[in-house]
Amino acid sequence: MAATTDTLIFEFKVKDDASNVFSAWSKRLKTLDREARSTFGGFGGIGQIAFGALSNVASRAFDGILQGFGAIKDAATDFAQDSVAAFQKYEAGLAEVSKTTGFTGKQLEELGRSARDLARPIGNLESTDLLRVMEQAGSLGLVAGKSFEEAKQILEDYSVEIGKAAIVMNSFGNDTGKLAQSVATVQNVFGLTADTSKNLLSMWTKLRQETGATELDIANFMTRLSK
User: Fold this and answer.
1) Where are the beta strands (DSSP E) in 12-98?
2) Least confident of 9-18, 63-72, 125-134, 136-145
3) Full-prediction pTM beyond 0.85?
4) SS (H, E, C) 86-98
5) Distance, CA of 220 to chain centre
């Protein structure tokens, strides 16, 4: 037995709260109902079959639309969850930068903006990757006793330096925090100043080319050698 127009409308409302989107279609279907019954009513069984086919086609079409809305809703939910997780990760990164640098409030927000702006042109990195470098820079004392403007410039330069190196040095897996930690460890054990990071990274790259060892292996070897 073909579904009536009223039954179809009821099913739409049960399936989705957004059934009001289809109100115009529902009105149109009612009109088609009247026209079909008027046109085919005198043909008995043929008229019922024709209107039944029309109703079934409409039902399948609306079911497809509703499923499409469901897919969009699921995608929107996933996007929202990913966005929340990314924001929480970003906030956590800022908190760690604050701990090692001592900057808070608007100054900390400005460092966050710098991390976002600098990550884009580097590519393959997120702002949180550079925040990890800033955190390490604070731990190294690179900005100790500096004004905010001086510290900001140092943190930006250091972040870009480590960030670019992390992409080139595959052995670190684009892990800027891990690379910054390795640089800091070697600098500490050999008594190197913080501004030697660029030369240190260049030396690791040269040794990799000459020996075939990875930069990570070289960093670990240098750390063990000092003990």
Assistant:
1) none
2) 9-18
3) no
4) HHHHHHHHHHHHH
5) 32
Give the Cα separation of 68 and 75 in Å (integer): 11
> Whole-angstrom Cα distance, residue 154 to residue 172?
23
**How many whole angstroms separate alpha carbon 43 and alpha carbon 28?**
23
Taking the C-alpha atoms of residue 125 and residue 123, their distance in angstroms, rounded to an integer, is 5
Distance CA 85, CA 96 (A): 17
For 164, the 3-state DSSP assignment is: helix
Pair 54, 36: CB distance under 8 Å: yes
3-state DSSP assignment of residue 145? coil
pLDDT band at 176 (very low <50, low <70, confident <90, very high): confident
pLDDT digits (tens, 9 = 90+) for 35-86: 555 544 444 444 444 445 555 555 555 555 555 555 554 555 554 555 667 7
Q: Please state the separation of Cα 29 from the chain's center in Å.
A: 43
